[in-house]
Amino acid sequence: MARTPENFRDGIRFLDETPEPVGSPTTPPPQDTGQSAKKKKKEWPVGLMAFLAVVAGGIAWKAAQEEEIAVREVYEERFDVDRAPRIEVEAIQGSVRVLRGSDWEVRCRVETEGRGVSPMEAGRSLGRLKPVMRATGDGVSVRIGGMEAHGPGPGEAVVRLEVPADAQVRVVTGKGRILVTDVQGSVAARSGLGKIEVKGASGPLVLDSKNGSIEVDARDSLVLASTLNGSIEFEGSLAEGISRFRTGNGSVNLELPESQELVVDATSGNGRVVSDFPTGAVRSQAGVIPVGYEPGESGKAEVEIRTGNGSIRVEKD
């Protein structure tokens, strides 16, 4: 049976912030006709593409569209770990992928890219994304610097980790996709803007996105999944206890085994609710996974589903 953290009460809670508004697209300039248009067509500049390679330090420079310079650097580390290590990742922006690897070791690879209109500005952007990878007393920490002091800026970091199957994984990113595959320990993940996807899990899951969909494939898991704007999809089976799925704007679809013993408490502010399982009210419980949680080998699971605008469907596989 997969081990779990000693204390999960500091897990990721559901947030109520709203995402920043997206600016309106720029209105295209009017087109000229006749001789004027022909003259302008001849005068259109040819897109400038330049490439400079700096071998020392492994940094690549290239000219991007609109004369933007991109600077890239790659960092790699390997750590020996004990059983059920705690893996913590904090990224100011960029995607995070956590995969099942070898037992007793963690492999980390971080690709960073800074951007700017000049080499100096691109270099400063790259410096803000420099990772700190280190061994902790009970696992490994990967941190993309400046998360508290700075918001997302130009550039991004792409984080890839290979961890033991029984790892206890915690991932936070301000902007970017999170993917966790074949981890049998616990998973806590939060993205300010981005999709969260968990595959092949079998431990407790705490998943939260401000603006992005959530997709889960798990067996015998207790789940807390929340997004302000996006759909939630779950396929697999739920452990004994209360699992909760919440979205402000989006559909919720669960596909569970026919043999699953389940009570469904589902409400939609504006949408249809369909359940192949018995419905009823679940008992009250705080929105955190209990300390010392262990999946039950038998017993009834309960699920609470809420959406402000969207359909809810709970189906038997």
Quickly list its features.
6% helix, single chain, 46% strand, 317 residues, disordered N terminus, flat, 13-stranded mixed β-sheet, 10-stranded mixed β-sheet, 2 helices, mainly beta
Report what the structure shows.
The chain has 317 residues and is mainly beta. It has a domain of 104 residues. Helices cover 6% and strands 46% of the residues. The strands form two sheets. Strands 1-2-3-6-9-5-11-13-15-17-19-23-21 form a 13-stranded mixed beta sheet. A ten-stranded mixed beta sheet has the order 7-8-4-10-12-14-16-18-22-20, with no helix packed on it. It is flat. The two termini are 25 Å apart. The N terminus is likely disordered.
Task: Outline the biggest β-sheet.
Answer: 13 strands, mixed
| Low-confidence regions | 1-65
Q: What is the arithmetic mean of pLDDT?
A: 79
What is the H/E order? HEEEEEEHEEEEEEEEEEEEEEEEE
Bin the helical content: under 10%
* Helix-and-strand structural type: mainly beta
Determine the N-to-C terminus distance: 25 Å
What's the Cα radius of gyration? 23 Å
Strand order of the largest sheet: 1-2-3-6-9-5-11-13-15-17-19-23-21
Alpha plus pi helix count: 2
Give the number of DSSP strands.
Answer: 23
